[in-house]
Design a protein that fits this description.
Elements: E1 3-7, H1 12-23, E2 27-32, E3 51-55, H2 61-69, E4 73-76, H3 83-88, H4 90-110, E5 114-120, H5 147-168, E6 172-177, E7 180-181, H6 192-201, E8 206-209, E9 215-217, E10 219-220, H7 221-232, E11 241-244, E12 249-251, H8 252-262, E13 269-272, H9 274-277, E14 287-288, H10 293-299, H11 307-319
Parallel strand pairs: 1-2, 1-4, 2-3, 4-5, 5-6, 6-11, 7-10, 8-13, 9-14
Antiparallel strand pairs: 9-12
Helix pairs in contact: 2-4, 4-5, 6-8, 6-11
Amino acid sequence: MKKYLITGGAGFIGSHMAEKLLETGNNVSVIDNLSTGEFSNIRHLVKNPKFEYTINSILNRDILEKLIKDCDEIYHLAAAVGVKFIIDNPLLSLQTNIGGTENVLEFANKYKKKVLVASTSEIYGKSNNVPFKEEDDRLLGSTHITRWSYSASKAIDEFLALAYYREKKLPIVIARCFNTVGPRQTGLYGMVIPKFIRNALLNHPITIYGDGKQSRCFADVDDVIDGMIKLMNCKKAEGEIFNIGNDYEVTIEELANKIKKITNSNSKIEYIAYEDAYEKGFEDMRQRKPDLTKIKKFIDYKPKYDLDMILSRIIEYFEE
């Protein structure tokens, strides 16, 4: 059995990862500063003797170094996430995403620990070359538009990870997540499914930003975690980048209507302009769909959950 360190381990994906690794008999240590994570996500794990947690930041180098020295492998999931959070906290987001990742990779290299770096579909920016392939060009907007700072910071993370792999032979894997959703995700930072479901259950208005014709692909957190663990255990995946998610596409408008129907909600569907929701000049992408050919080839990746199953799981969670 191994000891895993999960950065951002009290976050939505991190807490599910901790659960999964504990279920298979491993020891798990998590670090989280609770900026977007919640202690309630890991409270049920605290009594497990194989679980330990540290409430602190990956920018705290002394604490991070001790945790990395003491583990076998690292799932680096800590990041500033969510469009709203990035726009409200631009400086902290850049410091966390770039400085934090630099710290993780530096100490991972010092003690030669394998790292999975969680990246994002935001990497592709506003490219129209759909579905996105891992080696595709990136197309970003002006630096005046804050949302592109997230894409830029995660690209730097990827460059750093690949540089450590090429120069220092540090074993790394990069997983670009496409709209991971599931129980315990909060709608506070702009995540659309939990926000829509919560409002539908309360019969509050369901607010769509823009015209609702933009489309996304949603993947269940269990599928994403299974994929990440398989990538970590795949020697051939070292030094590689993988899209991870689901490739079933739905428009935001269709999603709102689907959620309204499943929950028997009386909510009105309302539309507001992006600039009223976020910031002046805000840009969004019309489509975001992954090409999953590469991850299927390497680990025979097959998502088990379709959109109806995903929504049922999250609705059940909110009703509880």
